[in-house]
Amino acid sequence: MTQTSPRASAGKGIALRLDGLSKAYGSVRAINDLSFAVDEGRFFVLFGPSSVGKTTTLRTIAGLVQADSGTLEIGGRDMTHAPIAGRGISMVFQSFALYPHLTVYDNLAYPLREEKAARAEIDKRVKETAEILKLTHRLKAKPATLSGGEQQRVALGRSLIRRPKILLLDEPLTNLDAKLRHETRAELKRLHRQFGMTVIYATPDELEALSMGETIAVMRDGGIVQIGTPDELYEQPIHTYVASKIGSPHMNLFAASVRADTRSFDTPLGTLVPATAPKTADAGEAALIGIRPSDIRLAAKGEAGVASKVHLVEPLGDITIVSVEAGGEMLRMVLPEAIAASIRTGDSASIAIDNRKIHVFRAVSGQAMT
């Protein structure tokens, strides 16, 4: 497991810091030596497939789960063993968990009533929250009569109404259809800007992570492989795991070996020389070459290229994904629709690779060489 150290931007306070947090259920380690820091007001995404520890991480931050080891700081205070009520945190679950017998008004008001807020204050904040979330016309409705998007907004409103320091969102868009997911992503970003709160958002969806996250932590096996901005994760993946999870279509990966000069590589496509030489490499060492589909193109007339055969053409509107076979490897490239329009399955094609965009990883560990 590649573990990045906690970090935060200069000039901002730290809203949340996890240091060496671990939690096991029997022999299963749900989170493992987990460490990261989140700036105040940041939209921070925990990204990875199911069962990598995203939900356990959120539940531990919220106080619903007690860690076996490590520390948790909220606003600079050790809250590892603090009660739920004192953390200033609110969580929206994947299931929404609305009270079916209560109206939208009463669902929104419920947290404030639990806090014994004055009736006038409750009414004021419920109406303000409903206005922000465009639910004013649904305040008298019951959850069963709401659309999926409206239910999601009520669940979100019930958390926002408490004005938490940190909002935790556990795959909140999973139950929505594609159109609503798109609309709600934009709505969540708008609310984040409007309220300026710290958001920790867990998702297995790459598009959600890249479009919403200001900082993304890529998780695997209860730990973090890499933390960075969307651009950093795309341009500078430090492990094949990240390279294969970030970017669509995902990075092309194929076997190679380090040549005697320790800066060029023998590959099925011939000798490749990355513009950035490996920091450490041994002659004959097994490697993996990574090339983004957008960094492969058709070779210009008269340009030396790699001979290939078109295997599949997938038009996607303004771009086309073209899969080619070269040197026994199947590679995908992304071409503008105008260039790809004349390409047909079975055609011969000469392809060129941008050597400034070649990524090299160690075959044994998956760690980046360049």
Task: Note down, in words, how this protein is organized.
- The protein has 370 residues and is α+β, with helices and mostly antiparallel strands.
- The protein is 24% helix and 33% strand.
- It contains nine helices and 20 strands.
- Strand 11 (252-258) and strand 12 (265-267) form a beta hairpin.
- Helix 2 runs parallel beside helix 4 (148-160).
- It starts with 13 loop residues before the first strand and ends in an 8-residue tail after the last strand.
- Residues 4-11 have low confidence and may be disordered.
- GO terms for molecular function: ABC-type transporter activity; ATP binding; ATP hydrolysis activity.
- Belongs to the ABC transporter superfamily.
- One of its GO terms (cellular component) is ATP-binding cassette (ABC) transporter complex, substrate-binding subunit-containing.
- Its main location: membrane.
Describe the structure using short key phrases.
single chain; 370 residues; alpha+beta; Rossmann fold; OB fold (Dihydrolipoamide Acetyltransferase, E2P); 6-stranded mixed beta sheet; 5-stranded antiparallel beta sheet; 9 helices; 24% helix
